[in-house]
Design brief:
With 322 residues, the chain is an alpha+beta fold. The protein is 29% helix and 34% strand. The chain is built from eight helices and 17 strands. The strands form two sheets. Strands 1, 2, 8, 9, 10, 11, 12, 14 and 15 form a nine-stranded antiparallel β-sheet that branches. Strands 3, 4, 5, 6, 7, 13, 16 and 17 form an eight-stranded antiparallel β-sheet that branches. Strand 6 and strand 7 (127-131) form a beta hairpin. Helix 2 packs antiparallel against helix 7. The N and C termini lie far apart (46 Å).
Amino acid sequence: MKVKEEISKQMNALGKEGKAFVFLIDFDGNNAELFSAKENDKLLWQTPEHSNFSPVEEKVQLTKWEMNPISFENYKKGFRLVQNHIHNGDTYLLNFTQPTNISTNLNLNQIFNSCSARYKILLKDKFVCFSPEKFVRINDGQIASFPMKGTMDASIENSEELILTDSKELAEHNTIVDLIRNDLSLVATNVEVEKFRYLERIKTNNRDLWQVSSKITGTLPNNYCENIGDIIFTMLPAGSICGAPKKKTVEIIKAAENYDRGYYTGVFGYFDGRNLDSCVLIRYIENQNGQLVYKSGGGITFMSDAKKEYEELLKKVYLPIE
């Protein structure tokens, strides 16, 4: 049986019994893991309301932060391939990402303990993630998704107005909201955009950033708990980190990126037996045989400029340390 089917089946069974659990699912849906909610030998995690660890009071200071990203020339090769597919009508929004080697005085554990974020995940010796992006939340049968599209340096004069009036950012956000609304309609009724394009400020070790999100809601069937795995997998991969239309866009992503995303842009979630909170695994650092690799990217449309998109990819290589 495939990983997706097996894990989904296990999640459904636990949901039917009202048992709490935690899950990780990678971008491709080929790797997934379930954990008990209290287990902390392999996975440490924190959501806005829950966690499975005690915070460390003494934090190691960040004294070294060096980046060795892909060159702009190499970035443009993937960017041009994406643009060719866009102009051919194969995709109209694609989240193009690339890895950046980083060097820092902090290890994964120290990064996890030092960072402040809405969601924090540490798969020991494998990766650390400090995500600002909610995926879906379920509260007493009401499901909500919070697609995040749009990033700007908050130090730029009039940055709040600029990002909300930028035509490229607006088109990109409209596309993702429409995609997520359709995704929610596969599992819920009464789907509506409850809040459109609101700003959140994120503090980092380099600069403050504005991020733009929306809130889309719907109503699940009464027996949603016993189908919790099916609900999550039906909505994967998350629309904000692939693009539209999903299936063809994912095919193009694999050809253009030429590297394995792994758990990056997958999802993490905590189910308490009735309610669920989850996030998209972005702002993500992976340990590759001792080399730390930061994976980041952004949405590409027909209006995208290669240099600006490259700069956005680099802006997202940061630690949320105040």
